[in-house]
Amino acid sequence: MKPIACLLCATFALLSAPLAMAFCFVPQPRLTCAEYFASQLVVEATLVRTKIIGDKNDPLGIEAHVYTLAVNKVMRGKIVTSIKVYDGNDSGRTTFDWTRGKKYLLFLFYVPSKNAWAVDSCGNSGPLNKAQAALSEIEAIKAAHDGGVISGVVSQQALSTPIPGVHVEALGGSDKYAAITNEKGGFQIKVPAGRYSVHVAESGVSFNKADISYEDPSRVLIEPGRCVQVQFAEAEKSQ
């Protein structure tokens, strides 16, 4: 299971099936301007070869696919000519088809234990011919010279019930920026580049960082063109 996807996707795996179904339970869609900066490597690449790794505990099962790709363009990270992408056959596997000779836009992080790269199955990786919106956002990021956006959701303990009308603050040094959550519990705060701490400022109610929050609200870094995504959940009340 991929480190990022394991927090966002179901944790069960259908080991006896040839391919496990992929699920993605995300409180907010992964924004390109957030995933771009969170990725170690962002590339356009062409699939050259697919290797199937069998499941040693199930002769009929598949543990993972390893995709070898020729890199056509590097948009973030070190210059490489080829990469291997490990895609485990579990609930965090990629949700798009891999076809030899097809081009892909990939947001990658390195997994040392697999000696390969991986993608967040809940992110923006996918076929290049369907990535026009993401590519446009990447170009806008590169052209940005000002600040960015802190985006988030505030919900009850169950995470499925949003809380509208609560006050959220972002503190950066002596500066304070604020927003109020909408009917879906969401908020956006535009801020200059810098470091921030984000919290829910609601009298009589405490909120903590949700386990599925993409970023840590207490340590937010905004670079020009960057956005970050945080999730707060109502804290359990003391008995």
Give a verbal description of the structure.
The protein has three helices and 14 strands. Strands 1, 2, 3, 4, 5 and 6 form a six-stranded antiparallel sheet that branches. It is mainly beta. Strand 4 and strand 5 (116-119) form a beta hairpin. The protein folds into two domains: 5-142, OB fold (Dihydrolipoamide Acetyltransferase, E2P) (Beta Barrel), CATH 2.40.50.120; 144-234, Immunoglobulin-like (Sandwich), CATH 2.60.40. The longest helix is centred in the middle third of the chain and has 12 residues, at 132-143. The two termini are 36 Å apart.
Topology readout:
Elements: H1 5-8, H2 32-38, E1 41-55, E2 58-76, E3 82-88, E4 103-111, E5 116-119, E6 126-127, H3 132-143, E7 148-155, E8 167-172, E9 175-180, E10 186-191, E11 194-200, E12 207-209, E13 220-222, E14 227-234
Parallel strand pairs: 7-14
Antiparallel strand pairs: 1-2, 1-4, 2-3, 4-5, 4-6, 7-10, 8-9, 8-11, 11-13, 12-14
